[in-house]
Structure formats: structure tokens, C-alpha cells
Amino acid sequence: MRVAVVTGASSGIGAATARALAERGWHLVLLARREDRLRALAAEISGEYEPCDVGRRDDVERVAASVLERHPQIGLLVNNAGIPGRRGFAEIELDRLEEVLRVNYLGAVWCLRAFLPGLEAAGRSDVVNIVSVAGAVAFGPAGPYSASKHAQLAFSRSTTGELRSRGIHVHTVNPGFVETEGFPQATVLRSAVMRRFIVDPDHVARHVLKVLDDDKRETFVPAWYRVAAVAQALVPGLVARLASRSGYR
Q1: Closest CA to 222 of 207, 239, 202, 243
Q2: What is the separation of C-alpha 40 from the centre of its chain, rounded to a whole number of angstroms?
Q3: How much is the CA Rg of the chain, to the nearest whole Å?
């Protein structure tokens, strides 16, 4: 039995990815804070669930110990849990800023460390970190969120090289605008042009399956978003002006 752990699995990309993996024959262990949502999805896909706040290290360690006791070998970890930060650094509440950094960045770090024994025990395993185009491009209107994703991107890239020799293949997936409950892009984006680029969670879930099939290390969804990362490096001033007009959060 191939066991996959998916964080942030109660809705959006996490739930879509869990369903897609279940269709491929994976046995899912779903993690998120909303137990009612997890229970319903686990029943739908014949999986398991554990309520878990990845922003709390002790919670992650407790849940990982419970899961590893039942499943000593973990074939796949999908670090998907994330929360928005819809204000700049000068306006966001400091408690919210800290929570954004804990969940979006440290949550992925703590989950990987906690499940590492199970990933190594599998012999050959995969980790998919759902990061964001915001990890490669700085968006002033959502500075704390961008900062958390920049950190997660660096973490994902560094572990890609560090863990492959141990049989763990780390994949970085950078989605652009995705319409989810936590990120209602269609209503948040002011620009009608930018709203045309919104995709749904199932689109990202299919991309994750392809990343695993092709063993891709770092990808963007859709692929042309990579241009934004290149533009950030070459013409950061232009990117900053465009970002301020997009209304991105």
C-alpha cells in the first residue's frame, strides 16, 4: 500500500490533490485544522485523517508520530497548507504576520522533519511543496505572504539537493492565481486582465500528478508564469509597478 500524507487537505488544492492521488491508488492520510471537512473527504476517498495545525510544531510532531506508528513507510508528502496575508507589512496585524510565516514556511519545514523517518524508510519517496509564484516574485500589496513563500521556495530548493541522495525526491510547484476558498482570486483581483489567468484546484492537482510522473524538480502552473520570475530578476521595478496594479493578495 502506497501511503501519501497531504497537508491543508480540507479544501482547495489539498482536497483536489488528495482526490487525484486516491484515483491513482494511493492511500491518503489527510491533515488540516477543520476536522469536519477532513472527516467527510476521508470517507469519500476511503482514507484517514488527523486534525493538525501545521503552524504549531508540537502539533505536527504529535500527529506525525501517530501516523508513523500506523504507517512506518511514507511514499509521498504533499506540503500544501497555506494561509493568505492580504495586507502589506505596514498594515498587517503582527499576530497575523507571524501566523503567515509559521504556516506557510515553518509548517512545511516541520512536516518534512517530522515525516522524514517514514520517507527514508520507503526507500524511494517524494515530497511535493506547493509554493507559489509569489515565492519568486515580490508583491508589495501582500508582502508578508510573498516573504513566507520566498522562504518556502528557498527551503524547497535546498532540500531538493540535500535529500535526493537519501532517496527522497523533492518537487517544487509554483501555482499562479488559483481560485480557492482561502484565496478568492476572482473577487480580490481588481484587474480584469489578471482574472483571466485564474485556474481551479483540479488544474493544479493534475499538474502535481504529472510532476510526480516526470520527476520534475521545479515547475510553474501554468508554465508561462516562469516568465514572471525571470522578469523579477531582470526588471524588478517594472514587476513592482505591475503588481501594485493587479490587486494581488
Answers
A1: 207
A2: 21
A3: 17
Give the strands of the sheet with 168-175, arranged side by side: 48-51, 27-32, 3-7, 76-79, 125-130, 168-175, 218-221
Residues 6+ apart with CB under 8 A from 15: 9, 37, 41, 201
Catalytic residues: 145
Quote the pTM value.
0.87
Going residue by residue through the chain, which has 249 residues, state the pLDDT in tens, using 9 for 90 and above.
899 999 999 999 999 999 999 999 999 999 999 999 999 999 999 999 999 999 999 999 999 999 999 999 999 999 999 998 777 888 899 999 999 999 999 999 999 999 999 999 999 999 999 999 887 887 666 788 889 999 999 999 999 999 999 999 999 999 987 655 545 444 454 444 344 456 789 999 999 999 999 999 999 997 766 666 665 555 555 555 656 555 444
Task: Give how far Cα 241 sits from Cα of 111, 140, 212, 235, Å.
Answer: 36, 9, 36, 10
Contact yes or no for 242/140 (Cβ under 8 A)? no
